[in-house]
Amino acid sequence: MKKTLTIALALLVAGASFSTATAGKKKKKKEVAQPVVEAPAPVSLVSSSDTLSYAAGMMMTNGLVQFLQQQFKVDTAYMVDFVRGFNETVLGSDAPAEVALRAGRQIGQQLKSDMVRRMKQDFTDTPDSIVETLVFRGFTDALMADTTVMNTETADNTFKTKQQHNNEVRIERLAKPGRDFLAANKQKEGVIVLPSGLQYKVLVQGTGEVPQTSSKVKVNYEGRLIDGTVFDASSKHGNEPATFQANQVIRGWTEALTMMPVGSKWQLYIPQELAYGDRQAGNIPPYSTLIFDVELLSIEK
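Request: output the structure for the sequence above.
Response:
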């Protein structure tokens, strides 16, 4: 990743000689008031190492502007501010106060752009939501040992309790359609319900050998969501049936395959606990109950 450094020199050498007219135009165009920046000392390349170093700095800025725009949403009208922040870091003092200030800026950026964003995603589709300003206030109050609202132990317990509750509510909401479907489906004629929760209906009863969990089987299949959406089928992967080991698929499949005689065709109704659970699997949403038509053709020896 070629980004960096002497944008400080490159920009300030070329840009610190901004004329008042140029700065005025930029302000009018962008409505941005540029800070007054002192012109840096002239660059003097005395040795070969000097030349190498300066060239390296300039080379390292290749693609940096585009990176800043895409990753940090930096407006190029504020490039002088970027250079100022850059110089504060690389040319700044190592005094404890300065080190702490720079660390605070870095952690603040990480918290805002990454951690809070992911936390918001975790609470999507739940009764509660994340309020950024209060996250930041709780963060700074804890660092300053301010227990006016709550102490860190209470905060930890509160967050974990609410996180668990919100997650349970979310799971219930997402899994309920599947549970309702299975509750109604088990009342239908021909549907067999197993202790695990797996349901199946025999469409064709075979008379061949029954696979073991370690058996390699050849099958034709079609998988659907409870709304009828087909998410996968053996026919989508070529003209040949699918071949796999019986214990290398979802639990609902393994349980059914190790009960089916070769030559059988069953319709399986698989609860989310025996399928993909909370995982997104291709076009299959989390907590989905699945329907499969499975035809067991043979056991591969």
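The CA atoms of residues 112 and 136 lie 9 Å apart.
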